[in-house]
Each structure stands twice: as structure tokens, then as C-alpha cells.
């Protein structure tokens, strides 16, 4: 009897002790104040969430837990903690939270970027690496990029003659969109007689709206019981965009199935149409999967590169010595009798440093794409329950004092001779993310930014319109799918190569 009572007492004590230990072990990350009823911390995000969250991290630390509406959200703001999430617990954090509007745009998450982690995502992601973004395919599309940048050079050259200011963002948008649409479906969207026009307004119109609505912070994603009320009126707009987009993509698919190109060349839609089905039905990949991939590539591929190039322009205008040094390198490696070629990039070390420094201070996706954890996990000693939303604040990480001296200063020299690359192995520089969900289009995005800058600064030197001072350039940002400059930059190009070079391209 005594033995039985003794054993029972030991069991009870053990379970009390275990509970006590597990309770004291569970430590939640600090939560900023105030937490409002219904909205939680949402009002703290303001118009520029990456900046507000950076400021909060100065007070609450590198791992914070916010209540956004009813959604628990962890914000990571240092390289070490990013390494824990994206490398040590890569698999646990490999899924994405749902978003009402992006679900509509991506045919219910049939794409890669917004798809939940699972077999469908794995297969689509494999397609990206084995079929769509291979080195061979990137090499094959070199001519497209070369011709598009040449076309842009000619346009700038014409405007140079009257010293006309050029809207850098609008000009690059046309160039990069043309590169993407040519690679995807062999069509240019802004060209007539060698110069751009706005002939394809419908396409341009829904692309602009897609970017805008896709990047809007939707309250329904954070306070799910408000979903039926759609307080911001996003759903009718999203439905209209989806309808127009769907018709547009249907026509592209239809044309591709019915017209074979005389030269036998294949664009990315041809490749997608030639792939076997993932399900056991049909004889090829489901149309919605193809369309969802097109959305990813148009949404992800155009604005991110454009945003980066515009910010580089701003920084180079503000620091003419850096612009001169970049141009000296270009002159030394390329000379004045030809334009820059993609094969020159490995020799252009200072250009690569300028690009890294631009991505550091101005990561186009300031909070990457949100991640979500599939299981409970611990980061920085804090417990993170399953299904928590994760924001990796790349904008804050890139300014972390543990990684950079004078982090607010634009100084490409810091990357000259440094081993830090953009491939997601250095957690102090993560503009393309890292791990399983890192950018699937990195090589294309990177070469577009490098070539864009190389071509534009080798062929022209740049100054602000008369009376404007570089130090007064407005540095305001707008938060959306990407974080571009709020007021687009206008600059005047001055030709710096012999005239026949512009004419011959
Ligand atoms: C300068 C250019 C670009 C930047 C800065 C950029 C940045 C990013 C970032 C930060 C992510 C999310 C990573 C994460 O959540 O951890 C991402 C994902 C992605 N990007 Fe890019 N990107 C660029 C260009 C492109 C291009 C050109 C394409 C394709 C044409 C592309 C396709 C994708 C896709 C499909 C994903 C989703 C990957 C997944 O969830 O598995 N991106 N990108």
C-alpha cells in the first residue's frame, strides 16, 4: 500500500513539475503596445510597414510578435534571426499565408510564389529550375534583352538632343515589360516603328491595377470575420481584373496552340504547353497553372527589377563620384566603340558592388513575401506557435549594425573584394530571400538590373533637370508589391559614346 501511494505521489509530482517547466520554458516574443480591440497592432504599421516595423524593432528587439487583427505575426529584423528562420528551420517556415485577393489573382494559389507548401508547389518550383529559368534558357534570351536595351538607348538618344527630362521609371517599365512578354509569349507591348507607344492599353491597364491591388494591405486578411464586408471595396476591382486577365491569357494560349512559329523557336508559354499534366487527367499542364505562372512572372519579374534600377539612378545622381567611378570601369572594360554585353558583367566588379549596395539600401520587396510556419518552433529563444505569419524585414536587416558600418550611407566600396553575394547564403543581404522559397527568377532579375545600369550609364551620363539639386531629391517610398520611389525620378541623359554607336543599334 505504501509503495502504491509512493508511486502515485511521484507520478503526480512529476506531472506538476513537467507542466511547470513547460510553462516557464514557453517564452513569447515581445509585443509592441498598444494592442487595439479588433485591429490589434494593425494601426502601428502605418503607410510604410517596413519602416514602422524597423522603428519598433529598435525598441522591442529583433524578434517581435505583433497581433495584426486576429493574426499573430512574427517580425524578424536581424541577420542571425533570419538565418534561424530561413536556414535552420527552412522547412518549418516554408509555407505562405493565404490572401483573399492574391488567391484570386493566382487561380487559387496554383502559382509558385503564393502557393502553400506541398506537392503542387514542389512540382511547379521544379518546373522553374528544370525548364523555365535554366542557364541555357537565360543564355537563349540574351538577344531579347540586348535588343530591348538598344531600343531604349535609341529612344533616350532622341530625347537627349533636346535635353528633355526622361521619366526613368516609365521608360524602364516599358523596356523590362517588353523583355518579359517577349520571353513569355514572343510579343512586344510597346513598339511601333522602332519607338514605344501605348498601343496595348488593355494589357497595361490591368497590369497596373494588378500591381496596385495585389500590393494593398487588405484588412480582410487580418480580421477574417470582416471578409464578407470587404471594407476597402477590393473584391469587385479584383474580380474585374481577373476577368480581363483571364481573357487575355486565354487568347495567348489559344494562339500558341494554333500557330507554330516559322523559325521553330519556343517561348516560355510553348514550354509550359509542352509539359505533361501534374494530375492524372488531360494531356498537358492545366491551363490555370499556366496562367498562374504567367501572373507570377509578370508580377514578380517586372516591377522588382524596375524599382531597383530607379533607386540606383537616384543614389548615383546624389553621389557623382560613384557615378564617375562606375563609368570609368565601364570605359576601361568595354571602351567606346561598342555597347556593354552580358558577357562583360563578370569583369565589371564595381558595377556588381553598386548593384549589391542598391539592393541593400532599397530591397524591392522590403518584407520579402510573407512566410508561415507549419509547426510550433523556437526562434531567438521565443516560442512561435504553428500558423504564425512571418515577416522577414530585409529593409531592417540590411541596416543592422552587427553587419554594416554606417548602414545608412550608400557606399558600394563595402562590397568591393567582399565575398558577400546575393544567392541567399549571406544573411546580411537578402533581397531575393533564401532557402526553399527564395526567388525563383534570381538570375533573370539580377542580369536585368546589372545590364540595365551598365547600358544606361555607359551610353549616357545623367543629370537632373535645370534648377534641381541632387541633395533635394525626394527619397519618399510607397509600399506595395514592391517599394518604389513615391515621386518618379526625372533625369536628362547626355550621350557619351560616338554617334554611330547609337545609330547602329
Ligand atoms: C530584381 C529582381 C527581383 C527581386 C529583388 C526578387 C525578389 C524576390 C523575393 C524577395 C522573393 C520572396 C523570397 C522569400 O519569400 O523568401 C521572390 C520570390 C519569387 N520570385 Fe522574385 N525577385 C526578382 C525577380 C524575379 C523574376 C525576374 C522572376 C520571374 C520571372 C521572379 C519570380 C519569383 C517567384 C516565382 C518567386 C516565388 C518563389 C517561391 O515562393 O517558391 N522574381 N522574389
From TrEMBL:
Q: Which Pfam families match?
A: p450 (PF00067)
InterPro entries from the UniProt entry? Cyt_P450 (IPR001128), Cyt_P450_CS (IPR017972), Cyt_P450_E_grp-I (IPR002401), Cyt_P450_sf (IPR036396)
Key words of the record? Heme, Iron, Metal-binding, Monooxygenase, Oxidoreductase
Q: Which family does it belong to?
A: Belongs to the cytochrome P450 family.
Instruction: State the name under which the record lists this protein.
Output: Cytochrome P450
Amino acid at each position: 500500500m505504501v509503495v502504491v501511494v509512493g508511486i502515485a505521489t511521484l507520478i503526480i509530482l512529476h506531472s506538476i513539475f513537467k507542466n511547470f517547466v513547460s510553462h516557464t520554458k514557453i517564452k513569447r516574443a515581445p509585443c509592441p503596445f498598444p494592442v487595439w480591440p479588433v485591429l490589434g497592432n494593425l494601426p502601428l504599421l502605418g503607410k510604410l510597414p517596413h519602416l514602422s516595423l524597423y522603428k519598433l524593432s529598435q525598441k522591442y528587439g529583433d524578434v517581435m510578435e505583433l497581433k495584426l487583427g486576429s493574426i499573430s505575426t512574427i517580425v524578424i529584423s536581424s541577420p542571425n534571426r533570419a538565418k534561424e528562420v530561413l536556414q535552420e528551420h527552412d522547412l518549418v517556415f516554408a509555407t505562405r499565408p493565404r490572401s483573399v485577393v492574391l488567391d484570386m489573382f493566382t487561380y487559387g494559389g496554383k502559382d509558385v510564389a503564393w502557393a502553400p507548401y506541398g506537392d503542387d508547389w514542389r512540382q511547379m518550383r521544379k518546373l522553374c529550375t528544370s525548364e523555365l529559368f535554366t542557364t541555357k534558357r537565360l543564355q537563349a534570351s540574351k538577344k531579347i534583352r540586348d535588343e530591348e536595351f538598344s531600343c531604349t538607348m535609341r529612344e533616350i538618344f532622341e530625347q537627349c538632343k533636346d535635353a528633355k527630362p526622361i521619366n526613368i521609371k516609365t521608360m524602364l517599365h516599358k523596356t523590362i515589360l517588353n523583355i518579359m512578354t517577349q520571353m513569355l509569349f514572343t510579343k512586344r507591348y510597346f513598339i511601333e516603328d522602332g519607338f514605344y507607344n501605348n498601343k496595348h492599353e488593355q494589357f497595361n491597364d490591368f497590369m497596373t491595377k494588378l500591381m496596385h491591388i495585389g500590393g494593398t494591405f487588405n484588412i480582410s486578411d487580418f480580421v477574417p470575420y470582416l471578409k464578407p464586408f470587404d471594407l476597402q471595396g477590393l473584391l469587385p476591382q479584383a474580380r474585374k481584373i481577373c476577368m480581363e486577365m483571364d481573357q487575355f491569357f486565354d487568347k495567348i494560349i489559344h494562339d500558341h496552340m494554333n500557330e507554330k512559329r516559322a523559325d521553330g523557336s519556343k517561348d516560355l508559354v510553348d514550354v509550359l504547353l509542352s509539359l505533361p499534366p501534374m494530375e492524372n487527367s488531360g494531356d498537358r499542364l492545366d491551363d490555370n497553372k499556366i496562367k498562374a505562372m504567367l501572373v507570377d512572372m509578370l508580377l514578380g519579374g517586372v516591377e522588382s527589377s524596375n524599382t531597383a534600377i530607379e533607386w540606383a539612378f537616384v543614389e548615383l545622381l546624389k553621389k557623382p563620384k560613384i557615378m564617375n567611378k562606375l563609368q570609368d570601369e565601364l570605359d576601361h572594360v568595354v571602351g567606346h566603340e561598342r555597347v556593354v554585353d552580358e558577357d562583360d558583367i563578370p569583369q565589371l566588379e564595381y558595377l556588381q558592388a553598386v548593384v549589391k549596395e542598391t539592393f541593400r539600401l532599397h530591397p524591392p520587396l522590403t518584407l520579402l513575401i510573407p512566410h508561415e510556419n507549419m509547426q510550433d518552433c523556437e526562434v531567438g529563444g521565443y516560442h512561435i506557435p504553428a500558423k504564425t505569419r512571418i515577416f522577414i524585414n530585409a529593409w531592417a536587416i540590411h541596416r543592422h549594425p552587427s553587419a554594416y558600418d554606417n548602414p545608412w550611407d550608400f557606399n558600394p566600396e563595402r562590397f568591393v573584394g567582399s565575398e558577400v553575394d546575393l544567392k541567399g547564403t549571406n544573411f546580411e543581404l537578402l533581397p531575393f530571400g533564401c532557402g526553399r522559397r527564395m526567388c525563383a527568377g534570381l538570375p533573370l532579375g539580377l542580369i536585368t538590373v546589372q545590364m540595365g545600369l551598365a547600358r544606361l550609364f555607359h551610353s549616357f551620363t545623367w543629370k537632373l533637370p535645370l534648377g534641381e539639386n541632387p541633395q533635394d531629391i525626394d527619397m519618399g517610398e510607397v509600399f506595395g508589391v514592391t517599394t518604389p520611389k513615391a515621386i518618379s525620378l526625372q533625369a536628362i541623359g547626355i550621350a557619351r559614346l560616338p554617334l554611330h554607336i547609337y545609330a547602329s543599334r
